[in-house]
Every structure is written in structure tokens, then in C-alpha cells.
Design brief:
lipopolysaccharide transport protein A fold, 50% strand
């Protein structure tokens, strides 16, 4: 080997050694979190202008939710918090219902939709001009049993008339509403 090749080899070895020392010096292993620390949990998520859709066991659309925001309430919880909720229950079918609320929550499992804040519920297909529109502060929609319930005060609007009650059970498929307060009446649309 000539002297110039020895110099090139020495220079390259020096640069390699310098790179190795720099990499070793700059290496800082990430600290592992202690047991029980939440930083290892699945990350939470947040969506804007989200559309959440679910089909039933028969493959037909069961629920379509359009929401201003949808976010996981806690990392890995599986619970979804919703803001600005506009939903269709059984969209496209003759027994479809429209729901809207300021907030909503989908607990893990996807069998319930819990709504709160200026909740409105009405049939999509207005069979008569007097189709009911239900207003309440909160409402629970049971997707398996196709029922909407609330123990809160409700107002049922139909045409120019309104009926107030405390508590309601609505059979979403059958199209019947049962009032739970002292009225104990049934309203069919």
C-alpha cells in the first residue's frame, strides 16, 4: 500500500470511530414506565366532523351518527364521547328515527347510545302532519331492544299541541310511546 492509501484508510477509520463515539455518546435509552403507568396504554383519539355507522345482525344499517367531534373518553376505555350529535336510527327504513343532542356517549360494546342536552327524537317518515317530536334533557337508546328511555321530563309535540310528562319509553320499531308519569298514557303515531 502506498502512503496516500494508508492516509485515506486512517482518515476513514478515524471518521468511522468518530461516528461510533458520537452515536454511543448521543444514545439515551428511553426510560421504561413503571408498572401501572398509563403511558403504555393505547392512545386516545379525537375526530372532527365524524360519521359513525353501525349495521345490525341482518346487515342493514342500524345507526348512523354524524357528530362535530368524537373522542375516546380515556385511553383504551372503548367509550366514545360525542359533541353535536345528529343521528339516524334505522336509516332508509320506514321506521327510521332522527335523533339530535348537544352531547352523546357510546359505552363499550356498542349496544347503547346515551344522549344529553336538548335531545330531540322524531320519526323520519312523517306519516301525518301531526307526527310526534319528543324533547327531553337526556335519553338512552338501547340498540338491541330497540327502545328509547328517559326518567327525565319530556315534552311530546304533535302539530300545534304539546304534552308534558316525566319519563318515557319509546318502542322504536313498533312506533309507540309510553309515558311513565301520572298520565300513564300511550301515544301512537
Amino acid at each position: 500500500m502506498t502512503t496516500s492509501r494508508w492516509r485515506q484508510a486512517a482518515a476513514l477509520s478515524g471518521f468511522g470511530l468518530l461516528a461510533a463515539i458520537t452515536a454511543w455518546w448521543g444514545y439515551r435509552p428511553e426510560e421504561l414506565p413503571e408498572a401501572g403507568n398509563q403511558s403504555l396504554a393505547a392512545p386516545a383519539y379525537s375526530l372532527r366532523s365524524a360519521v359513525l355507522e353501525e349495521t345490525g345482525p341482518d346487515g342493514r344499517w342500524r345507526l348512523q351518527i354524524k357528530t362535530d367531534t368524537a373522542s375516546e373518553s380515556a385511553p383504551g376505555s372503548g367509550e366514545i364521547d360525542l359533541q353535536g350529535v345528529h343521528a339516524l336510527y334505522h336509516p332508509g327504513s320506514p321506521d327510521a328515527w332522527r335523533l339530535q343532542a348537544k352531547q352523546g356517549r357510546l359505552p363499550p360494546g356498542g349496544h347503547r347510545l346515551l344522549l344529553s342536552g336538548a335531545v330531540e327524537l322524531e320519526p323520519v317518515a312523517r306519516r301525518k302532519t301531526n307526527s310526534p317530536r319528543i324533547s327531553t334533557a337526556r335519553l338512552a337508546l338501547d340498540l338491541e331492544h330497540e327502545r328509547a328511555t328517559t326518567p327525565a321530563p319530556v315534552t311530546i309535540h304533535f302539530g300545534p299541541h304539546a304534552l308534558g310528562a316525566i319519563g318515557l319509553t319509546a318502542d322504536m320499531k313498533g312506533g309507540t310511546l309510553r309515558l311513565e308519569s301520572a298520565l300513564h298514557g300511550t301515544f301512537q303515531h
